[in-house]
Amino acid sequence: MEFADVIRLIGRRWIVVVLVTLLGGVAGFAGAILLTPSYESEVNLLFDRETPAEAGGASQDLLQRMPTFAALTTTATVLDPVAERVSYPGGVRALREKVTAVAPDSTLLLRITVTDPEPARAARLADAVAGSYAEAVRDDFGAGAQGDRVVVTTVQPGTIPAEPAWPSVPLFVAAGAVAGLVIVVLVLLTVTTVRRTRPE
Questions:
Q1: CATH architecture of the domain covering 39-156
Q2: DSSP 51
Q3: What residues does each domain of the chain span?
Q4: Residue 192 near residue 1, CB atoms below 8 Å
Q5: What pTM was estimated for this model as a whole?
Q6: Cα–Cα distance, 89 to 125 (Å, whole number)
Q7: What residue ranges are annotated as transmembrane (predicted)?
Q8: Strand partners for 44
Q9: Which of 42, 46, 44 has the alpha carbon at shortest distance from 123?
């Protein structure tokens, strides 16, 4: 069957095609609504030296250490106090799976993101992790190569997200509609082919 035949087939059965496509979109919407949403709240931390440095040497040293600072975010030193303070379900292991940290290239920023089914709790946890991280830097991680200290400042606190990061309702609706369209076209093609090849 050629492409033109497929187009003519869809044209003859356009009502069925439209209905099944709409049903696919409705199914995608229902799936998105039934799934447990995940909300993300983000905190940005800025790193600097406690004492001014000469000719930007300290800044370069900090830039080189930023990937390490990011990796330290999910250590027990940072997350244990948070998990205990908020009595997080599943403890520090479960909390570790909800926390990510990245240091954008060529910046002294650390971006901490916390995911949670409740938007308000996501924001509270993000702020709590940032606070615990700042304490850990002050007490454990913050010694510089020349004895000076690293200072961490919150430049963007956690905010309550208005929309879930996952699932995306528009994406699920579109995927459901496309799936419905593909299925109905395949069924129509199969039925038409069988009818044409059936001996009379």
A1: 2-Layer Sandwich (3.30)
A2: S
A3: 3-35+167-196, 39-156
A4: yes
A5: 0.76
A6: 12
A7: 14-35, 171-194
A8: 111, 156
A9: 42
